């Protein structure tokens, strides 16, 4: 449970601009208010990190860039189809960033990295695959099922990420506990052999 809480905070904080955008859009607030609110929140997140002297995480920059890009395109063109296709581009970029080994390190206590770092790297690839799948699915819904897109974007991205997040944390916890038990039993056996 402690690992879940440790990872959940940064994950939500990193994606806060996109989350606000998706929630407002799904609740019928309209594209322009959703974009403006998402932009304000994404700018505030990055500003907060910079004011504290912390390094801004890649997902925070991506959240800010995607919301700003959407804001500019929507306000300049007034074309909602552009907004509908934008998540596809964002998911592709995020998926490529997630291919980088070790990007999940900030989401787990440093003491556990030696124990489950390899599992975290494998899940980095799974997260990347989810982003690429989301990109394709978003494009299909935006182009062929346009009327369903607001519901899709309000539900699927968050539900799929929280679902994978729950599986990810459960697997990392299970593997970590199993490895700890093996290490302890190996230490006990070594002591008994002496």
From TrEMBL:
InterPro entries: YciB. It comes from the Bacteria. GO terms for cellular component: plasma membrane. This is Intracellular septation protein. Keywords: Cell membrane, Membrane, Transmembrane, Transmembrane helix. It comes from Sphingopyxis fribergensis. The chain crosses the membrane at residues 16-46, 58-76, 82-103, 124-145, 151-175. Pfam families: IspA.
